[in-house]
Amino acid sequence: MYQKGQSQAARCQRCGRPIRFIKNSNGAFVPVEPASGYYVPDEIRGTSIFVDMSGMVRKGRGNVDGMEGHLLHRCSRKGRKEEK
Questions:
Q1: What is the pLDDT of residues 22-57, one digit of tens each?
Q2: How far apart are CA 23 and CA 77, in angstroms?
Q3: What H or E segment, with its residue span, contains residue 33?
């Protein structure tokens, strides 16, 4: 479960972008985008995959009246770190 201060900002080893981790109900850490937003769960029309503050991964759409959550981190090849 999410607790204030539990998640420290980190960098993705694959793409180098900043990420955070939220602990899910199984005790595993889920990588998410650092900025939170508000989402309405919507399995049919939802276009975003987000993680709510209890660590549950859901499909939904952004809405100012929704529940707080973070977008699930997805690596992109554009942002991948250059190998030295």
A1: 998 888 998 999 999 999 999 988 889 999 988 899
A2: 26
A3: strand 29-41
Query: DSSP 3-state helix, strand, coil percentages of the chain (rounded to 5)?
Result: 0, 45, 55
Give me the chain's average pLDDT, please: 81
Buried residues in 1-38 as b, exposed as e (16+ CB within 10 A) = ebeeeebeeeebeebebebbbbbbeeeeebbbbeebbe
Give the ranges where 1-84 is alpha helix by DSSP (H).
none
Q: Are 29 and 21 in contact (CB under 8 A)?
A: yes
Q: Please tell me the pTM assigned to this model.
A: 0.71
DSSP secondary structure code for residue 68 in this structure: E
